[in-house]
């Protein structure tokens, strides 16, 4: 029996036009780099954002913790400004899908590489409310170890009193989302093509399924339950 689905936010359930990764690119490139958005997404999608900076720099054989932290401070300042006038919407069918899952008695959890303040700001712009639209929000600042470690999923399970990961499904738009679900032992780890990475990049993580629209998840769940 599936008891909970855990969704990534940006690119999976939230459409913020990649503003976070565009801002991350800007913060890094202000230090005389020339990373493209494609490179930033390839190296950092789905990660806690300081770790994403480390990973992006490492792609050019740079391991400089002082530099990474300085970029992170700049990123947070730039992001605050970027969010002031940002038009944030849900990804197609997110709210209807949440409602269908809740009708089935399946908990809806959101998890993200953002910190809690950023995540709650996005949710507030969309208008989602806890217990009405979703049941749990777990962010990078809530756990010690971030993706691909399973800590965020395990915390969501603990909060919902779910002991067995084979009662949990993870959905995300990056390979690291898929790896997170696999490391937690989830029943299914599912990629979705609406966000950061291509189908080919998602397939590199060996997901159980790759979908193109959130509503396709219902067919997977119904097929398993039947």
From TrEMBL:
Q: Which domain of life is it from?
A: Bacteria
Q: Does the keyword Coiled coil apply?
A: no
- Pfam families cross-referenced by the UniProt entry: HAD_2
| A single GO BP | DNA repair
- Residue ranges of coiled coil: none
Record keywords: Hydrolase included?
yes
* Keywords linked to the UniProt accession: Hydrolase
- What protein name is recorded for this chain? Phosphonatase-like hydrolase
**Upper classification of the organism:** Bacteria, Pseudomonadati, Bacteroidota, Cytophagia, Cytophagales
Give Gene Ontology CC terms: cytosol
């Amino acid at each position: 029996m599936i008891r909970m689905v855990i969704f990534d936010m940006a690119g999976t359930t939230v459409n913020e036009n990649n503003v976070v990764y565009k801002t991350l690119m800007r913060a890094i490139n202000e230090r005389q780099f020339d990373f493209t958005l494609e490179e930033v997404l390839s190296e950092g999608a789905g990660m806690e954002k300081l770790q994403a900076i480390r990973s992006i720099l490492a792609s050019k054989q740079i391991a400089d913790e002082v530099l990474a932290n300085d970029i992170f401070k700049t990123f947070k300042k730039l992001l605050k400004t970027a969010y002031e006038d940002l038009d944030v919407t849900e990804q197609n069918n997110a709210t209807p899908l949440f409602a269908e899952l809740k009708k089935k008695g399946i908990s809806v959890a959101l998890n993200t590489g953002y910190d809690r303040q950023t995540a709650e700001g996005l949710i507030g712009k969309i208008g989602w409310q806890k217990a009405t639209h979703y049941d749990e929000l777990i962010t990078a600042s809530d756990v010690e170890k971030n993706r691909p470690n399973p800590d965020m999923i395990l915390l969501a399970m603990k909060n919902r009193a779910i002991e067995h990961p084979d009662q949990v499904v993870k959905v995300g738009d990056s390979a690291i989302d898929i790896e997170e679900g696999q490391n937690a032992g989830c029943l299914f780890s599912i990629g979705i093509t609406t966000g950061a990475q291509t189908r080919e990049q998602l397939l590199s993580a060996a997901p159980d399924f790759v979908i193109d629209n959130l509503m396709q998840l219902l067919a997977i769940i119904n097929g398993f339950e039947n």
